[in-house]
Design a protein that fits this description.
The complex is a heterodimer. Helix content of chain A is 41%, strand content 13%. The longest helix of chain A is centred in the last third of the chain and has 17 residues. Chain A has a single domain, classed as TIM Barrel, CATH 3.20.20.20. By secondary structure, chain B is an alpha/beta fold. Helix content of chain B is 41%, strand content 17%. Chain B is built from 17 helices and 17 strands. In chain B, the strands form 4 sheets. Chain B has an 8-stranded parallel β-sheet. The chains are: A alpha/beta, B alpha/beta. At the A-B interface, helix 7, helix 9, helix 10 and helix 11 of A face helix 8, helix 9, helix 10, helix 11 and helix 12 of B.
Chain lengths: 312, 452
Amino acid sequence: MAYKMPAQKYSGQIQEVTIGSDLKLGGESVLPFYSFDGDMGNKPVIGMEIWDIIPESWPEGVLNTFKDVADDPVKWAKYCEEKYNPDFICIKFEGANPDGLDKSPEECAEVAKKLAENVKVPLVIAGCQNNEKNAKVFTKVAEALPDKNYVFLSAVESNYKEVGAAVGMAYGNIVAAESSVDLNLAKQLNILVTQLGIKPEKMVMDPGCAAVGYGFEYVVTTMDRIRLAALQQSDTTLQIPMILPVSFESWKVKESIAPEEEMPEWGSQEDRGIAMEISTAVGVLGSGANAVILRHPRSVEVVRNFISEMTE
Amino acid sequence: MALNGMQIYKLLPRKNCKECGFPTCLAFAMKLAQGGTEAEKCPYMSDEAKAQLAEATAPPMRTVKFGTNDLEYSLGGETVLFRHEKTFVNRPRFAVMFSDTMSPEEIEKKIKNINAVNYTRINEEMYVEIAAFRCESQDKDTFISLIKKVTEKCSKVVPMVITDNPEIATAAVSECADKGPILFGANEQNHDAMVNLAKENKLLLGVTADGKEKLYELVEKIQKAGYRELLLDAGSRNLKGAFDDMVNIRRTALLSGDRTFGYPTVAFVCDMAQDKMMQLACASLFVEKYASIIVLSDIDYSLALPLFALRQNIFTDPQRPMRIEQGVYKIGTADEESPLLVTVDFALTYFIVSGEVERSKVPSWILIPDAGGYSVLTAWAAGKFNAKSIAKAVKEFEVENKIKTRELIIPGKVAVLKADIEDELPGWKVIVGAEEAAALPNFLKNYQQAAS
C-alpha cells in the first residue's frame, strides 16, 4: 500500500489586518506553519520593545545592549530600526505608571508623536500595569496619531469601552483585545469590542502570555483552541490575528534575572535570558502567534531566522 | 481500524458460557469495543480471531521503550494531537550528539556539559537522557572506544548507536547491551540484518529513509518481518522538512488510524542548525509538535532551562495541575526577621508569587499549605485554602521556631480569611496583601519600610 498523506480540512481563515501602512498580519487558513495543508497567509512578524523611561528593572545583559540609547525613546527606536530591522517598534509607557513616575497622558502622547515622526516602521503602543491610566494614555496618544493603524496594547475587560471608543472608533487605530489565558474570555472580549462598532480588520488579540515553565501549557492550549475554533469551526469571533508580548514575561522569570553570582552553575545570565525569550517566542509561534514582541537583538535575529526557515 | 461491538461479536464463539465474567458474548463484545476488558478473557476464541482483535483494539500509536531499570523510558503511546483533547503521555527525551571523528577536547567538553546539567524542577529530575553516537570513522574500534568513554563518564545516559553498518552495529550494541541502547539506523539496504540485531537484543530500532513515502514502505517491510519496536526518521535535515515529517507522521497515525506510522519519531536538531540558539528554537518547536527524541549538538543550562521547562509544561495532564511541595520556602537571603507570606500549592501560583517576591528584592518566606493544588480563589471556594489548612501548615512546618515575625501576609483576594486565621493562630496578626502578584514588589517594599 502506498503512503497517503493525511489531509486536514479547514473551513475558516484568519482575518488579514494591516498595521501602519503595509505591515500585514494573519490571512492564514491552516494551522501555524502547516504549509503542507494550504495557505500560510502572511508570515509572522517581530517587534522590538522599548520604554519611555530608562528600564532600570531590565536584567543587565539586555540593558547593556541599549545603554547608550535607553535614555531617549526616539534614539532607542532609531537604533533598533537601523541596526536590527524589526517589523515594528513596541513603545511601552512604563513611565505612566501611577506607582512610578506617573507621567501624564500628554507627555506620553508627545513621545509617541516624536517616535512616529522619526521611525519608519509602525508602532505598537503598550501601557503600564494600570488599566485605568492606560485608557487615558491611549486616548491621548491615539488623538495625537489618528488613522495611523498603530496597535494599542491593550484593551482589557475593565477599560475596553474607553480604549475601544478612542483608539478604534474616534481615531482609527487598531485595538488589541487582551484576555488572560482563557478561550471563553478571549471570545467574549472580542465580541464586546466588535459590538462597540470596531471592525475585525481593525483588531488584534493578545490571549495572554507566560514564559516557558510558568504555566505556558495554558498559553499553548488556549492558543491551540482559539486557532482550531477559528479554522475548523469557522468561529469568526476568533479569526483575529494574535500578538504576544513575549518579552514582557520572559525577562522577569528567575531563569532570566538570577545573576551569575547567585547561580554560578547556570552560566551566563544574558544567554539564559535570550534562551527563555527564544523558546517562549517559538512556543507561541507554534501555536498561532502572528506577531511577537522581543527585547534582545540576538533573540530577534534567531526568531527571524526561525520564521524564515519555516515559511520560505 | 477499530471494530465496533457487533463486528467483535461475530469473531466470538457465541456460546454464552459466561466464563469471561459477562452474561453473554454480546455484552462481552460491547465492553471490549469500549476498551473496558481484554480479549484474553475469552477462553474459546480462535487464535486467528484473537490476532484480528488485538490488531483492531491496539492503540493507534505504539508505546516503545529503551534503556534499563531506573533509566528506562517510554516513548509514543499518544492518542491525541492536542493536549487539551485528553493529555500527552510520554515526554520527548533529549540527546547530545557525539561522533567518533570529534577531537578528544570536544568529546571531553560535551561529557562535562552533560554531567553539569542535572537539577530538579517541580519534583522532576532534569538531565540529558541519551548520548547519541555517530560512527563516521567507519572503524569499529574507534567507535566502540568512544561509546565506552562516554558511557563510563556519564552514568545516566542511554546510548543511541548510529551506524548503517550491521557489523559495526553488532559490535557496538554488544559493548553496551546492558544499558538498553537505541539502535539507529535500519535503511533500505541493511534492514534484514539490523532487524535481526534489534530482535536478538530487544532494542528500539531507528528506521530511516529518504522521505515519508520510502519510510512508509520500509516500515511495512519491517513490520512484516515481525518487528514493531521502532523509532522513525523520514530523513529531513532542515527545520521545515522535519516539521512536515513530525506533523504528518503523527497525523497519519492518529487521524488516518494507519499504524504503519504509529511510532515515535526522532528529530536531529543537531543537523538542522549550527548555532546553539537556533537549535534551541528548533527543539522548542519539536517539543510542542511532535518529536519523541530530540538530538542536540550539546547542552548547557541556557538550553536546558527553557527546554526542560517547556517540556514539563506541555506534558502536564490538563486534568492534574502541577503542585509544589508544601513547606516554608526561603526567597533571597531571608532570615528570622523577614516577612512571611502565604499562598497555595498550585505550582503556577507559587512560581508567579515567588517570582514577584524575588523581583521585590525583599528577602521573604513563603508558606505553602495543603491547598489541594488549586489557585487561590478556587482553593478558597473549595474549602482547601482556609484558616484551618493555613494554621496546620504553620504548626507542621514549625514556622514559629524558624521565624520571629508574628505577622502573616495573605493574598488580597482572600481578605475574608483574616479573622478566622487570627482565631486559629493566637498571637498572630494577619496582614491583607496585594490582590495581584504583580503588585507584590510595591506592597513588600512599603511593608518593609513601615516595619523599619
